[in-house]
Amino acid sequence: xxxxxxxxxxxxxxxxxxxxxxxxxxDNVVALDGRITGHDKSDYWRDIFDRYATRRLDRxxxxxxxxxxxxxxxxLMGFIVGEVRVxxxxxxxxxxxxxxxxxxxxxxxxxxEGMFKAISGLFRDAGMRTMRTMVERSNRLPMAFFRSEGMxxxxxxxxxxxxxxxxxxxxxx
Amino acid sequence: xxxSSRLAIYALVELAxxxxxxxxxxxxxxxxxxxxxxLAKVMHTLGRAGxxxxxxxxxxxxSFSGNAKRTTLLDVxxxxxxxxxxxxxxxxxxxxxVEWVLFDVMCEIDDIAKATFGAITISTMLxxxxxxxxxxxxxxx
Lengths: 173, 141
Description:
The structure holds two protein chains of two kinds.
Chain A: E1 7-9, E2 16-20, H1 26-37, H2 42-52, E3 60-67, E4 76-85, E5 94-102, H3 111-125, E6 131-133, H4 140-148, H5 163-172
Parallel strand pairs in A: 5-6
Antiparallel strand pairs in A: 1-2, 2-3, 3-4, 4-5
Chain B: H1 3-17, H2 25-32, H3 36-48, E1 52-55, E2 61-64, H4 73-77, H5 97-119, H6 122-129
Antiparallel strand pairs in B: 1-2
């Protein structure tokens, strides 16, 4: 898939195709994400769509997998969103996947792998050699998926702190 | 990771890589330079867990009988080691601040290790062995 393609057949059996998201997909994306996460994030997804599906499309990729068959039970089978990030924390330019979801009713059909490979190709075409993502470590399903696609722990470790603890420490000095 | 766990993972990947034939203990032992005696004990444990099945006699050996896409390294390690409570503080009531901080550090490492082992399946291991190694992290164990 490249920028000029409207869509590509994403599965060996032709069960789905992968294309860039359009405004008409937004409600289905919000609904799928809501089913997976338990949170309605309409405003968030509208903002993501505006930023990642309408601007700087040479380095921002909002892809969806849709069922090839008309009238399928799950027309939206999954989505993946990523962008090229440059010099973040000194890191050389690389592809970042920051949203990924597969409709539970369509798992084990290669949807996740199809989207992963599609965005890999787009990052490669954008000149990237590395692709990164972040996964909650207790969330085994996406962890196992990204591992199965060859991802391993990268050179950066995510750190966090309770802000109140930091402020207490400063006050106590 | 204990030796038995490592052997079990080697054996399971080896069997999963050869779904069409029986693989003998001595064959696996030779390949991984381990004693057939030790490996036989490991295979027995794997058999009881339903991950391998054996066929006796000429041409016999072991085959993989688990679900390679569902069986994680943590599942396998858990058959040979206690993976539930590795991170312990001897006596929380009398522990000093240093002991608590070190305990937190150990728990952090433990959590990351468990998350990693729990996310890598036998199928993923097999897939990785078939990929060309680009940046081997060679370490003297």
